[in-house]
Amino acid sequence: MALAPGTTLGRYEIRSHIGAGGMGDVYLAWDTTLDRPVAIKVLRPEMADLPDRMRRFIQEARAASALNHPNIITIHEIAESGPLATVPFIAIEFVDGETLRQRLQGRPMPLPDVIDVAVQAATALAEAHGAGIIHRDVKPENIMRRRDGLIKVLDFGLAKLIEPGDQLGQQATRAAMTEAGAIFGTALYMSPEQARGATVDARTDIFSLGVVLWEMATGCVPRDSSTLNAGLPPEFERTVSKMLRPDPNERYQTTKELLVDLKRLQQPEPPAASVVRPRTPAVAAALLGAAFLLAAIGSWLLFRTRGSAGIDSIAVLPFENLTRDNAIDYLSDGITESLINSLSQLQGVKVIARNSVFSYKNQSSKAEEIARKLNVRALLTGRVLKQGDTLDVRAELTDAERNAQLWGDHYVRKAVDIFAVQDQIASQVIEALKVRLTGGEREQMAKRQTNDTEAYQQYLQGRYVENLGSEADMQRAIPFFDRAIALDPRYALAYSARGETYLALGDLTLPMKEAMPKARENAARALALDDKLVDAAVLSANIKFSYDWDFAGAEADFRQAIAQNPNHAEARHQFTYLLGLTGRADEAVAEIDRAAQLDPVNPSIVVDTQLPSMLGRHLKDALGRGQRALGLFPNFFLAHMALGSTLVMKGETAAGVAELEKARALEANPLVLGNLGYAYARDGRVDAARKVLEELNAASRARYVQAFAVAAIHAGLNEKDEAFEWLEKAYEERSFWLVWLNADYRMDGLRADPRFAALVRRVGLP
């Protein structure tokens, strides 16, 4: 019997029935704790009585919840035991859109849409396959398209671990098979080996996706791979034909391999004027055969001479300063950073961000070990020697997996030729990686931000000092950027860097009202000079988010910056805050995890991998991520502060206080003290909390102290009037921390007060 609207399952209130599947019904519901729509999948009563069906139901949730990817449906909760055991259900992300089945209805889709869906679905399957999970029921009903075009792969109910030999794999196999030889799946989309009940692997998903791909393009499913002749582009038909080979050994062997060809289909054809079209089928066939032969020979020669097939990830390690003068460190560091910035323009190559690679500066770790930790295939290393006005640079590109050099070169130039050296290294690395540049990528990489070597060196010194990380270092960096801009008033990157520094100092050393106008002026100047400068676009997005409280405008800018440079780890990192603080924790997880892939040993990013879970109150996951971050960075104050805050949220206040005290020992800034004072109050240590208030009051006579930090301690002491008084001061300051109002656990005791709702509205939070 269907659940009536208004029925509650835990914290979820049923709103309406939206669908049904073989194992249960799906409802639109409202999460009353997090104020968001969710989909609830409820196992039918007759199914719940069957142990094997129940295992499959739980199997679906566990398989999908192990995957974290924007193209895979997110699992919020599994209710399999306790007071709700009589109504087992899964709470999943609500997708506002339609399934491919609803979209198709026997009608073909435009080919660009078909390929877009295929690329996104294949990307989701590649993520699952990489985690050892195959879907086994890919079909139009299990692929949804959101209104904004994002594809979601649903229903991992038939998922099976690829490695069934271990205990988890055996459990998964038993859960997916009710008896020996039983077959699950949907016949029209099933691979031949799956239909026979044989062992299946990732290639069975490739087959099923091929059926879906053909159905999207033609409106009907193919009978077999020999019937694929519908007048569609030959490359498209060849791709689908390979996906649908009856013998799995003749198909694409991995989804990543398939993605290469699918993405190639997205590229526009060469201009008609450059293509000579033969007049007869015989001539066409002959020329096509010759073209394939020449391509095969060319590919073989290219592989023989370069040996870099399949490399899609690289880390540029800090170039070694051989000058034996630490004052020249900024030069070797600057060459490294410039190469990272150039290579990060490549859409199809993962380029590790600056902070992670610089953690290996002056270390003697083996190349293969560094590559493994950074999860990359290739490493670019180099050495810099400056003697007078002569620059001696050596660079080497290594395939770490095969421990083989792919390319190397030696440059002796005048120091004023540093730009040409950097351009030449980047160009030769791209050639060695066999990356085909688009026109836009070529334009961006050819662009020089300045031709003034002295301005460039001032900029590099500013970046070097700023990256040391302390408030004092950031303040010391600004005069270097000032001098760079004075030498070259059209140096967009220097304006952007100066603006970023002011942004970082806002609500830390400077009030936002003082820091943000300076940051905004620099962002505007940078974008006026170069409207494609991603660093400046991210700066502008952050100003809109943290100071203007223009959340829609900031989101549009973040998305545009990420689309322009998907390798920009900091853009994804900062976008995580906007998503998490506006109630979209699941999307925030996807962004921060991608940022962590691009910058895997950046302490701030690794610590913030727990942020979406903290904001969404998924405290078990937050604690796990927080403990991992602390294990990697035991001397980083933010790691202790984040873990301590999570423990306090969880009710383990004594343990939380202990971690926050460790954070204060490392960095006694107002941010840490605000969290510690609140924790003292919640732990019943009122005198200690008041002592922190006195400490902040004393500090305010010598430096800027965030009003929000003081408000948080008063909230912990349940002194609401004082808390609101300080929150009002924070509002007058345009404090960044006010964007945390909806999510900050320290504000929980104030939420019922009408003054709180009024403040949220004034800030403009959803």
What does this structure look like?
There is one protein chain. By secondary structure, the chain is an alpha+beta fold. It has four domains: 8-93, 2-Layer Sandwich (Phosphorylase Kinase, domain 1); 98-266, Transferase(Phosphotransferase) domain 1 (Transferase(Phosphotransferase), domain 1, Orthogonal Bundle); 313-448, Rossmann fold (3-Layer(aba) Sandwich); 528-763, Serine Threonine Protein Phosphatase 5, Tetratricopeptide repeat (Alpha Horseshoe). 53% of the residues lie in helices and 12% in strands. Strands 1-2-3-4-6-5 form a six-stranded antiparallel beta sheet. Strands 12, 13, 14, 15, 16 and 17 form a six-stranded mixed beta sheet that branches. A hairpin with a 2-residue loop joins strand 1 and strand 2. Helix 19 packs antiparallel against helix 20 (534-548) and helix 27 (637-649) packs antiparallel against helix 28 (653-666). The protein is globular.
Question: Mind telling me the C-alpha Rg?
Answer: 28 Å
Share of helical residues: 40-55%
Low confidence ranges: 163-183, 268-309
Structurally, how many domains make up the residues?
Answer: 4
Mean pLDDT, all residues: 82
Q: Layout of SSEs?
A:
Blueprint: E1 8-9, E2 12-20, E3 24-31, E4 36-43, H1 45-48, H2 51-65, E5 75-79, E6 89-93, E7 97-99, H3 100-104, H4 111-130, E8 133-134, E9 143-146, E10 151-153, E11 160-161, H5 167-176, H6 192-195, H7 202-218, H8 234-243, H9 255-266, H10 281-306, E12 313-316, E13 320-321, H11 329-343, E14 350-351, H12 354-357, H13 367-374, E15 378-387, E16 390-399, E17 404-414, H14 418-433, H15 439-446, H16 453-466, H17 471-487, H18 492-505, H19 512-529, H20 534-548, H21 551-564, H22 569-581, H23 585-598, H24 603-608, H25 611-615, H26 619-632, H27 637-649, H28 653-666, H29 670-682, H30 686-699, H31 707-716, H32 720-732, H33 754-763
Parallel strand pairs: 12-14, 12-15, 13-15
Antiparallel strand pairs: 1-2, 2-3, 3-4, 4-6, 5-6, 7-9, 8-11, 9-10, 15-16, 16-17
Helix pairs in contact: 2-5, 4-7, 4-9, 8-9, 11-14, 11-16, 16-17, 16-18, 17-18, 18-19, 18-20, 19-20, 20-21, 20-22, 21-22, 22-23, 26-27, 27-28, 27-29, 28-29, 29-30, 29-31, 31-32
